[in-house]
Design goal:
There is one protein chain. The chain is mainly alpha-helical. Among the domains are: 66 residues, lambda repressor-like DNA-binding domains (434 Repressor (Amino-terminal Domain), Orthogonal Bundle), CATH 1.10.260; 71 residues. The protein contains eleven helices and four strands. A two-stranded parallel ribbon has the order 1-4. Helix 1 crosses helix 5, helix 2 packs across helix 3 and helix 7 packs across helix 9.
């Protein structure tokens, strides 16, 4: 079966949104990478194969068709208003987190105190905000890229600094899945640029692992938060000992 160019482009957008390569898709379909590339370049695949690809992407054919008709590029960043709405309603932020991580309604209700009406209301709110598209069966399709970023000094970043940072560091990092590295030293500007680049690579690897594990059940995954940061900084407690630079 020869697929329309729009359907193939929609499949490619879904792959990019989940940071999946042809090689990743080939491994999940138990095909060679060359075979997958050939399918996409020739737009030739059976309905059964198309359904298998949709299963890997955790989407339905209706969802794929809607994306093909729309041709929308996934958002790399939310608007100020969208972020503020999430900050104003923590349950809405949780609903987005669960939707982005492909939790099904049954899993949500097994782990959280949302009844059918409450969960539906949250998904409808996210849909009206333009952050997800509400699909049949209370499935939420994210309209964001899988690795979208919060706005620099936007509502979510400010909320994290003022309200969540203390909570994040309140408990010791002594569990099997915990790690906390406190590193400090003096680097050249070139060294700082190199370190900043490496932190970006770690962030991209984190995104790739999220995409890889998205197909696992909720019971097989653990919620993880990663804070990567660097800046020229001296502890406040050292400031009284600093020699004034004025003069």
């Amino acid at each position: 079966m020869a697929l329309s160019l729009e359907l193939v482009d929609a499949l490619k957008r879904f792959l990019r949104a989940q940071d999946l390569t042809y090689r990743d898709l080939a491994a999940r379909l138990k095909l060679s990478e060359a075979a997958v590339k050939r399918m996409f370049s020739k737009r030739a695949m059976s309905l059964e194969r198309l359904e298998q690809i949709c299963d890997v992407l955790d989407i339905g054919l209706v969802e794929l068709s809607a994306e093909a008709a729309r041709g929308r590029t996934a958002m790399a960043e939310l608007s100020e208003a969208q972020e503020q709405a999430l900050v104003d309603e923590p349950a809405l932020l949780l609903a987005l987190f669960l939707t982005l991580n492909r939790w099904k309604q049954a899993d949500v209700q097994e782990h959280f105190l949302f009844d059918d009406a409450q969960w539906t209301r949250l998904l409808v709110r996210l849909d009206r905000l333009g952050i997800i598209e509400l699909m049949p069966g209370n499935r939420g399709r994210p309209l964001t890229a899988r690795n979208f970023r919060w706005r620099a000094d936007g509502p979510m970043e400010r909320y994290f600094r003022l309200n969540l940072l203390g909570d994040y560091f309140a408990d010791p990092f002594d569990g099997e899945q915990d790690v906390l590295l406190l590193l400090s030293g003096s680097l050249s500007p070139a060294g700082i640029r190199q370190l900043k680049q490496r932190l970006g690579e770690v962030a991209r690897e984190f995104d790739a692992l999220l995409a890889r594990d998205a197909a696992l059940s909720a019971q097989q995954r653990v919620g993880v938060s990663l804070v990567l940061a660097q800046k020229p900084w001296l502890l406040q407690l050292f400031h009284p000992y600093r020699r004034s630079q004025a003069g």
